[in-house]
Write a structure and sequence with these properties.
The structure holds two protein chains of two kinds.
Chain A: E1 5-8, E2 11-14, H1 21-27, E3 51-54, E4 57-60, E5 71-73, H2 77-93, H3 108-115, E6 132-133, E7 139-142, H4 151-160, E8 165-168, E9 175-178, H5 195-198, E10 205-207, H6 220-223, H7 226-242
Parallel strand pairs in A: 1-5
Antiparallel strand pairs in A: 1-2, 3-4, 3-5, 6-7, 7-10, 8-9
Helix pairs in contact in A: 2-3
Chain B: H1 5-17, H2 25-36, H3 41-51, H4 55-64, E1 76-81, H5 84-88, H6 91-102, E2 115-120, E3 132-134, E4 137-139, H7 144-155, E5 174-176, H8 179-182, H9 189-197, H10 199-209, H11 221-230, E6 247-252, H12 261-268, H13 270-284, E7 288-293, H14 301-313, E8 330-335, H15 345-352, E9 376-380, H16 381-393, H17 395-399, E10 409-416, E11 422-427, H18 432-438, E12 444-449, E13 455-458, E14 476-481, H19 486-500, H20 506-523, H21 529-545, H22 549-554, H23 556-564, H24 566-570, H25 584-587, H26 589-594
Parallel strand pairs in B: 1-2, 5-11, 6-7, 6-9, 7-8, 10-14
Antiparallel strand pairs in B: 1-3, 3-4, 10-11, 12-13, 12-14
Classes of the chains: A alpha+beta, B alpha/beta.
Bound molecules: flavin mononucleotide (FMN), iron/sulfur cluster (2 copies) and FE2/S2 (inorganic) cluster (2 copies).
Chain lengths: 243, 606
């Protein structure tokens, strides 16, 4: 085997120096499920959806450095069952009423739930009381659906160069706050073209006045598995960002 | 609303006292909280503007730490420890008593703004509880008559500084000193040895001693220091390694309920702890050190500052320590503000930088990239105390005690059901049975070794030994007798983790709350045997999938009790297969009101 090679589920994968396992996988067109990773953002490792086994040890693929000869297991029963538990946890933690949600069909949480065969909540619903922010002319923030992936937080800081979102609170009391004197989105620097306004994997940040342009049933993940979509779009982005 | 100029001045003065440094954010907010009994919105904005931080960053920090609050708290803010040992000593009942007398509920501030009440995870006084804090100062040995006097002082608005000293009296309570506690070093003894023998030689002594970290994980201290000294990568001795600044941090967060041995070391052996830090600084080449002192240990701060000043005066700190050129080192005290997770070394470093205490992704480890991304050694208080003794007396003095894999002694803090709670120091290898005998424990049902994150053991295992290779502990040793209910213990610990989870990762953030709800359901008698299956698979998942040690140990109380005390669970089960997690009858309440019915047919029995 040549230098800079690891294997994922037995398949040899080349990696660049400094790559994480996720970056190597994306480049090689292999899908490791993820909710808080985006090639354009600094990896943070909070959702734990991308947990893989590296030489027998559980690691987050999006933050763990790739190294020569690693044997990575990804698409195996045990890990996919863990992934199902994570989506179930995220579903009961927030208030997700998919049939009435504009993100339905384009939502990564929902798509992963389908792909790992989630058929029930499994855990009792927590029913948190969370606030909605409808103040912005173009953008809606519905905290009921937030999964704390911090993609909007990082996108603002790292790509848009603005401080808009942040996580406040602790533990199950975590909540998303907005950087403006009133705490409302309308008084923040957020614009509809910002990455922060478009990066949310779920229906917590929604662009207004585009609702139901594409009918439910014909949306992204209604037609294709998330693995396929992810590989197709993120490989391009990964190569653009990290070469 | 405009804010009075004098208030603005106060906030500005606090910020400038801290040299307008972002790393001091948490320290600044603590002082603001002290001044206003909350962090007022206006103050938050001034602090953010002065430090050049987004207001959201400041708010995120306030909302992370339990001892800070956006809501107005009382001029007297009284917290009771909610540790299980305090609960078993009647703390909840005392809180009810206090709450009734003052006319305010826990978690609330009285209308006149005079007083607010609440609970806190642990105050580090489990051997002299029930304990609490008033405006951040320890209250020990609470009882009804003491509470009567407290109520009187509060109502007359007597400032805490004028309260009877006996209320704050905290004893070291050393019941059985051993290797370290029996032979404290003379001030400066270790440093003189260091300067005389040379850094390399003393490092070899530490290596020879076999010392392993006393904070819990038991990593070899000499190795940690070597990695830090060598720098982020193997530059093979090239000058690149020298470009990095290095830091030495003493972890005095001591947040594990039932652990209070660092309190004693800092109260009576602080010279030795600081000396150990200075030895470390000499060896790894650090110029700056920090003592990260848990917020609940505020009372120790003035005396610790005085000891630091004394050491500076003697040139045990400062420039060219003991005349050795280039040996410069000083120590700063940073206060925590009520967050157990900040004991985790990378979360502690985030907190030192003035941020939310969220554990970092590892690798890189602190020895490569720690404080301000520079190589940093983090060691426990007791580790540093041992280091100083080893530097003074030699590695062999230490290594001949203990077991092969666990050299030396361990200081443990004993609380719970025994005659003589307090501090005990043993050579590693002592059996649990011997310890129980020493402290006068009878009729023992279970021992919790290592606090909530450790493990519960039952009678069959009292022959087991205290050692890294058998039962490891950071120092917590809680004893429960046969009158205690195991599930109440599990419930307390499970609530603790849910309260202390930082919330960064899904398994721990959501999982700890689900565990808590499930254990509540069992304790309240609403569970069936079916719940058990789900409980143990949930627990195992949280253990393997969480980001840091907090999540990875949060399910230990459930898993440990399931395997050691399965009967405790079965006794609580209902005889049906399924039981809903909610009260069926209560759910009908709204419908009853709407239909104006309350006849028997409008009710459901569960
Ligand atoms: C949730 C959590 C809390 C911790 N709390 C403490 C603590 O209060 N004191 C401590 O010394 N170590 C604590 N640790 C362990 C530290 O991360 C670290 O291993 C230790 O400070 C290293 O010092 P040592 O090698 O001298 O033991 C904690 C770890 C975790 C995961
Ligand atoms: S955000 Fe996704 S999972 Fe949540 S309600 Fe909307 S579609 Fe469903
Ligand atoms: S709003 Fe969306 S992008 Fe932002 S943290 Fe919540 S789920 Fe993630
Ligand atoms: S994608 Fe790796 S933890 Fe979220
Ligand atoms: S929230 Fe701290 S371990 Fe996950």
């Amino acid at each position: 085997m040549s230098e800079n090679t690891l294997t994922i589920d037995g398949k040899p994968v080349h990696f660049e120096d400094g790559d994480t396992i996720m970056e190597a996988a994306i480049r090689a067109g292999i899908y490791i499920p993820h909710l808080c990773h985006d090639p354009e953002l600094k990896p943070q490792g909070n959702c734990k959806m991308c947990e893989v086994k590296v030489n027998g040890r559980n690691c987050s693929a999006c933050t763990f450095p790739a190294a020569e000869g690693q044997k990575v297991l990804n698409n195996i029963k045990e890990l996919n069952e863990n992934r199902r538990i994570i989506v179930q946890m995220l579903f009961v933690e927030g208030n997700h009423l998919c049939p009435g949600c504009e993100k339905s069909g384009n939502c990564k949480l929902q798509a992963i739930a389908y792909s790992v065969g989630m058929m029930e909540y499994r855990f009792p619903l927590i029913y948190p009381k969370r606030e909605m922010d409808t103040s912005h002319p173009d953008i809606l923030l519905d905290r009921n659906r937030c999964i704390f992936c911090e993609m909007c937080v990082r996108a603002g800081r790292e790509v848009d160069g603005k401080e808009v979102f942040a996580i406040s609170g602790r533990g199950i009391g975590n909540h998303l706050i907005v950087n403006s004197p009133s705490g409302l989105l309308k008084d923040s620097l957020l614009e509809v073209t910002d990455k922060a306004a478009n990066v949310c994997p779920v229906g917590a940040i929604i662009i207004k006045r585009h609702g139901f342009e594409v009918p439910i049933g014909q949306r992204i993940y209604d037609k294709k598995q998330i693995a396929e979509v992810s590989v197709a779009t993120e490989k391009v982005l990964e190569e653009k960002v990290h070469g | 609303m405009t804010w009075s100029e004098s208030k603005q001045e106060k906030v500005l003065a606090i910020v400038s006292k801290h040299e307008i440094r972002q790393t001091r954010l948490l320290q600044i907010l603590r002082e603001v909280q002290d001044e206003f009994h909350c962090v007022p919105k206006n103050a938050l904005e001034i602090v953010a503007a002065e430090l050049g931080l987004a207001r959201t960053k400041v708010e995120g920090v306030v909302q992370f730490y339990s001892l800070l609050s956006l809501e107005q708290q009382g001029r007297f803010h009284i917290l009771f420890s909610d540790s299980i040992t305090d609960q078993f000593q009647g703390s909840r009942g005392l809180m009810d008593y206090l709450s009734a007398k003052l006319g305010v509920k826990p978690g609330q501030t009285r209308g006149d703004g005079k007083v607010s009440l609440g609970f806190t995870s642990c105050t580090g006084l489990c051997d002299q509880g029930p304990a609490g804090l008033v405006n951040g100062h320890w209250l020990s040995r609470l009882n009804e008559s003491r509470i009567d006097r407290i109520v009187d002082l509060v109502e007359r608005e007597v400032p805490v500084s004028s309260w009877p000293l006996e209320f704050f009296h905290v004893e070291d309570n050393i019941q059985s000193p051993g290797l370290l506690l029996q032979s404290p070093i003379d001030q400066g003894e270790a440093l003189k040895q260091l300067v005389r023998e040379g850094f390399e030689e003393i490092f070899m002594e530490i290596n020879r001693s076999g010392l392993r970290g006393r904070g819990g994980a038991g990593f070899e201290t000499a190795w940690k220091w070597r990695f830090c000294a060598e720098g982020p990568e193997d530059y093979s001795g090239s000058s690149l390694a020298d470009k990095n600044e290095r830091f030495v941090v003493c972890n005095a967060d001591e947040g594990e309920p039932g652990t209070f041995k660092d309190r004693i070391l800092l109260n009576s052996y602080a010279h030795q702890v600081f000396e150990g830090m200075t030895v470390c600084a000499g060896i790894v080449g650090a110029k700056q050190g920090f003592l990260y002192l848990r917020g609940e240990y505020l009372r120790l701060r003035p005396q610790l500052e005085a000891i630091l000043a004394n050491r500076r005066a003697k040139n045990f700190l400062g420039k060219s320590i003991l005349g050795r050129n280039g040996f410069d080192f000083d120590i700063e005290i940073h206060m925590g503000a009520g967050a157990y997770v900040c004991g985790e070394e990378s979360a502690l470093i985030e907190s030192l930088e003035g941020k939310r205490g969220v554990p970092r992704v590892r690798p890189p480890y602190p020895i490569d990239r720690g404080y301000l991304d520079q190589p940093t050694v983090v060691n426990n208080v007791e580790t540093f105390a041992a280091v100083a003794a080893i530097a003074a007396y030699g590695g062999a003095w230490f290594a001949t005690q203990g077991t092969d894999k666990s050299k030396g002694s361990k200081i443990i803090s004993i609380s719970g059901d025994c005659e003589r709670p307090g501090i005990y120091e043993y050579d590693f290898g002592i059996s649990i049975a011997e310890i129980l005998m020493d402290c006068g424990a009878e009729n023992t049902l279970a021992v919790q070794v290592g606090g909530p994150s450790g493990g519960i053991i039952s009678g069959k295992e009292y022959h087991r030994k205290l050692a890294f290779e058998d039962l490891g502990t950071g120092g917590s040793f809680m004893i429960f007798n046969k009158k205690r209910d195991v599930l109440e213990i599990v419930r307390n610990f499970t609530h603790f983790f849910a309260h202390e989870s930082c919330g960064f990762c899904t398994p721990c953030r959501v999982g700890t709350t689900l565990l808590k709800n499930e254990v509540d359901k069992i304790c309240d008698g609403h569970a069936t045997s079916l719940d058990l299956v789900g409980l143990s698979s949930l627990a195992k998942f949280i253990k393997t999938a969480s980001h840091c040690g907090l999540g990875q140990s949060a399910a230990n109380p459930v898993l440990g009790s399931l395997s050691h005390f399965p009967q405790a669970y079965k006794d609580r089960f209902k005889d049906v297969v399924f039981e809903p997690g909610f009260d069926l009858d209560e759910s009908l309440e709204t419908a009853r009101r709407m239909s104006a019915r309350d006849d028997p047919w409008a009710h459901l029995e569960q």
